Fold this sequence. Notes:
Chain A is mainly α.
Amino acid sequence: MTKTNTKKKFHMKRWFVKWFSLSGLMSIGWKIVRTIILVGCCYTILYPFLLKMIDAFKSFEDYLDPAVRYIPKYFTWNNIQQVLIQLQYGRSFPITFGYSILIAVLQVFICGLAGYGFGRFKFRGNGLLFGLVIMELLVPPQTMMIPLYIRFRFFYGNLNLINTYWPIIILALTGLGIRNGLYIFMFRQTFRNMPKELEEAAIIDGCNAFQTFYKVMLPNSFSMMVTVFLISFAWQWTDTTYTQLFQRSTNLLANMTSFVDGGEEAIMVLQYNNTAAVLCVLPVMLVYLIGQRFFIQGVARAGITG
Amino acid sequence: MAKEQNRKEKSFSKGNASTRKGMALSDKKNMAGYFFTMPVIIGLIFIFLPALVQSLIYAFCDVKIDFGDIQTEWIGIQNFYDAFLSDSEFIVLFVNAIRGMFFDSAVIILFSFFMSNVLNQKFAGRGICRVIFFLPVVLSMGIVADMEDANTMFNAMSALDESASASAFDQLGMAAMFSISRMMEVMGLPMAMSNIIGTVLSNMYGILNASGVQILIFLSALQSISPSVFEAAKMEGATKWEEFWKITFPMLTPSLLVCVVYTVISTFTNPTYGVMDYVESQAFSSGKLGYASAVSWVYFVTVIVVLGIAAGIISKRVTYLD
């Protein structure tokens, strides 16, 4: 009897402390503030995208009518059909998909190799070369644009690589693609944080340097690889800087969106452009949602510190 | 017998030492580093550095493309002279960009630092929140950014066109912002501060979009702090406040450096300032390739100087665990 009584008292006391002491009040207040901030931020991130998705289904009258915001009065597939035709989606989707995967795989492989080299070996010039890699990240793409364009326009003599798929492949193979410096940096930090014993065990078991990398280090950095793959895939898919510079007339979606035409009305063009962007980005979003588990794991394990 | 064996061992070890050809085993192992970084070294030497040098040379030249043939003519510092003294558009864009860059970088870094700490706490729905917060990392580049630009441009144009009926939502937005600043003024906050808060709140979308990578970097650094450090601090009787300033913050300083570098770079190349678009339009529409490269070098050198100062200040306070 007394036992339950004290228990109840204790419970009461805890309840009292939780709600009425200063620190308890502060922690509850913080929880409320935190929830408000998080909900607000999530809303701010998602809202424009959702609105654009809804806009894609609106008929032209609905689009002009400021009273129609979330639920279209005249629901229509017409915009999407038109834009799909203009984007040549049936042709450009597989091309973009294959190309982005190719580029992402190349970048993961090359940057992984380089990150391992920079992170694990103290060869002469390591610091200088890594500094140059960081510099690669620093130089705005616009500074490099003109020389790179000319470079690929007259590739070793008179080979014209502009409007082929080669320039970005070559850039990916040499670790110069979009923000590859960041990937190399991320891989370097990952490999640096791995225990030395792992490598030593592999060497004792008779692996050479490449086998150590391929059989021991890469599998252990799997979530980092998926992270870099996802980012690289998405950035290649949505990139307009390099694709529009080097391959204006290829069937990549990033190019096609800039050709979408809505007719005479300027606002119609806007709606079509938005629809095109949504259709273009949607596959990337799906890939991200599928891969996000690894992405967040990769974040948790990487420990990207300078 | 024992002596003989001893001598044998000695001679063996001696022989081994003499046959070693100048390179220690660790050095030999480290040579493999060249093998792993080979593609990147090739890229740096054959594509990156030549392009960089080339663009620097173009900055001092008058460059013309005639029927696929490049003609360069050395004109010294004429391009830079033009950029600073006769091109009024560039100077305005440049100064605005630098001012905006300082403000934006500060806000983005503070915000992402705060948000990563929040996302590191335990609460229901944390996974979903993280997924949403990292969404801009994947989506905010390229196409989406271009589309946003087009939309703002269109809104601005239509507001100019029909200022009488200027879209009702814009007016509402303006009014809301005005009232926030007003409210803070009534509360007694100084004008400058209420202006800053108003700007930040109305740019929330841009800030959230720009701080995805930074939150990612901070969060991964937070996760890599081993919990035993906090346990030890708790045993010693540290409060949460002390834990934050004496453990979390110092442990985050290395990634703070990374974040500052990344933020400054990405805000500098942010298309909203218009400098990058200006470079592109000069190069590809007006055909002034040399001038465009001079302008972008001015910009680039400014980035390096700003980054050098910022990194210098921060790296003095960076603490490494080992």
